[in-house]
Every structure is written in C-alpha cells, then in structure tokens.
C-alpha cells in the first residue's frame, strides 16, 4: 500500500507533466502560427491562470486520494511539485525554441515587445524622455537567453509558491481520528 507521500508525489508528478505538455504545446503553437501572441498581455495572464488551476487541481485530487484529509505540508507539496514540474517543462521548451532553434525569433519578439510598450506608454501619456529611457533599458535586456529564462523560472516559481501557500491553507483538513 502506498503511503501519503507516494500518493502525493505520483499525483503531483502526473499533473505537472500534463501542465508542462499543455504549456509547451501552447508555446510551440504560438511560435509556429502567430509569434506576435508572445507580446499580448492576456496570453501571459492566461498561462499564469492555467498554472494556478493545475496546482489547485493537483491539491484537490491529492486530498481526494487521501480520503478527504490533507495536511498543510501535503497540500503545499502537491501544489509545488505540479507547478515546478509543469513550469520547468515549459521553460525548457522556451529555451529550446528561443535559444537553440530560432534565436532570430527571440529578437523579433523583443522588438515587437518594445513597439507594444511604446504604444502602451504613449497611450498613457508618458513623457517622451521616460519612454525613451524605458525602451533603452528593454533593448539592453536579453529576455530569451538561457540565463534569463532560468531566472524567470526561479522568480516565477517563487511567486507561484506564495500562492501555493494560500492554496494549501485553504485545502488543509485534519483527520479527526488522528487526534
């Protein structure tokens, strides 16, 4: 018979792999069909929501497999493994596409992001001096280098982990028979 940790790790790994495949597939489809999608703000928000939903689903399924009782640690572990694994698979796909297969596409997306930012800042009436300063800073950054993508993974995972703490707090439920 499997213990709780094995159940949680098995479930969370399966959810994480599924999440990673979905995110990697969406990245690949945007790359192949419409690279301009990478500059749309709502795509990032949608991806972020998908990651959180998969983390919640993982915790919910783990709780169900543990007969409706899950500790805070078990809930967070289920969430974290799912999110970390799925997000990592997605990051690897980004590295593969933008750093190895097609670095020119990364440069194109960077240029489109700069154009989009200029339009956004002009729309809000930002002074030209501030716009130029912000765009110069953007031009200096290589958001698609391997190091930048791994940093983004780490910072994103840290933020998602804070949300995971809240999810674990909401889902935790002690088994009264163990008290």
From TrEMBL:
Domain of life of the source: Bacteria
UniProt keyword list: Membrane, Transmembrane, Transmembrane helix
Short name of any one Pfam family annotated for the protein: DUF4199
Signal peptide segment: none
Membrane-spanning ranges: 12-33, 39-59, 79-101, 153-171
InterPro entries: DUF4199
Protein name as it appears in the record: DUF4199 domain-containing protein
Source organism of this protein record: Planktosalinus lacus
């Amino acid at each position: 018979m499997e213990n709780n940790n094995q159940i949680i790790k098995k479930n969370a790994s399966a959810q994480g792999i599924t999440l990673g495949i979905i995110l990697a597939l969406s990245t690949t489809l945007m790359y192949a069909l419409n690279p301009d999608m990478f500059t749309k703000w709502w795509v990032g928000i949608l991806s972020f929501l998908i990651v959180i939903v998969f983390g919640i689903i993982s915790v919910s399924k783990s709780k169900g497999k543990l007969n409706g009782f899950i500790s805070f640690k078990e809930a967070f572990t289920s969430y974290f493994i799912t999110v970390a694994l799925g997000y990592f698979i997605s990051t690897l796909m980004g590295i593969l596409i933008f750093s190895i297969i097609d670095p020119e596409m990364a440069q194109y997306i960077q240029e489109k992001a700069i154009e989009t930012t200029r339009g956004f800042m002009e729309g809000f009436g930002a002074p030209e001096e501030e716009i130029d300063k912000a765009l110069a800073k953007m031009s200096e950054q290589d958001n698609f280098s391997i190091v930048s993508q791994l940093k983004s993974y780490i910072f994103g995972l840290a933020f998602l982990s804070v949300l995971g703490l809240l999810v674990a707090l909401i889902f935790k439920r002690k088994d009264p028979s163990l008290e």
